[in-house]
Design brief:
Elements (H helix, E strand, L loop, with lengths): L1 H15 L7 E6 L2 E3 L5 E8 L9 E10 L8 E7 L5 E3 L6 E6 L6 E8 L7 E10 L5 E13 L3 H65 L1
Parallel strand pairs: 2-10
Antiparallel strand pairs: 1-3, 3-8, 4-5, 4-9, 5-6, 7-8, 9-10
């Protein structure tokens, strides 16, 4: 009985494991951000092809977002198709970087970067890849990830401000040192120029004396 049960479990595992093989992944960096303090958050969909991939020809990648994690209601953010390889979407590109490539011979990806993300950037991000299988039939894959937003605490803000003040002071010291070095270099250049001018003046005087001597000899 035990041996029979192990055989059934082994057969079940052999069927289930390939289903968990990640053909389409969604990566967020970082997965948790602090509002007003985190410089940017990157979300990227990546489709990797291998021999077991059911989706053999990608026609589009789409990235959607839901502010709520319970019963999410997704709204499309950006998408890319294999027809023109242009990233289209409704995001504000002045505060957001978008990019993507569909390569049916290699890896396809679609991503965006939120600059100084606000609290409404948290939630669920879902990526969907659509295309054709070996039989030419429509196939769709999807995957998702969750990003969490934190409101900064006073101690955290104070620490960040102190670090920024330290960095500013360090930069000010470097600028002053650079200015001092530049002034010293300029002074050395001026001294060298004066020395060169004096040498040239002495050379001119020597040439003039030689000319006078030549004139006297000729007379």
């Amino acid at each position: 009985m035990a041996a029979h049960l192990c055989t059934i479990i082994s057969m079940f595992s052999a069927v289930v494991v390939p289903m968990f093989k990640a053909e389409l992944t969604v990566n967020a960096t970082p997965t948790t951000f602090t509002v007003g303090l985190t410089k940017n958050v990157k979300i990227e969909c990546l489709f990797s092809r291998d021999q077991s991939t059911n989706l053999v020809f990608v026609t589009s990648l789409n990235l959607a977002h839901s502010k709520t994690t319970d019963n999410p209601e997704f709204q499309d953010l950006i998408s890319i198709t294999s027809f023109d390889s242009q990233v289209y979407g409704s995001v504000n590109t002045s505060r957001t970087q978008v990019y993507g490539v569909i390569d049916n011979k290699g890896k396809s990806f679609l991503g965006l970067v939120w600059d100084f993300p606000t609290v409404d950037r948290a939630g669920v991000y879902k990526c969907e890849a659509t295309g054709l299988n070996k039989m030419g039939k429509h196939v769709a894959l999807s995957n998702s990830t969750i990003i969490t937003a934190l409101k900064p605490e006073n101690d955290h803000v104070i620490e960040m401000v102190q670090n920024l003040m330290t960095q500013v002071e360090h930069l000010r010291t470097q600028i002053n040192l650079t200015t001092k070095n530049h002034a010293e270099l300029a002074n050395k250049i001026n001294q060298s120029s004066n020395y060169t001018a004096n040498l040239q003046s002495q050379l001119n005087e020597a040439n003039a004396k030689n000319l006078n001597l030549e004139d006297k000899k000729n007379q």
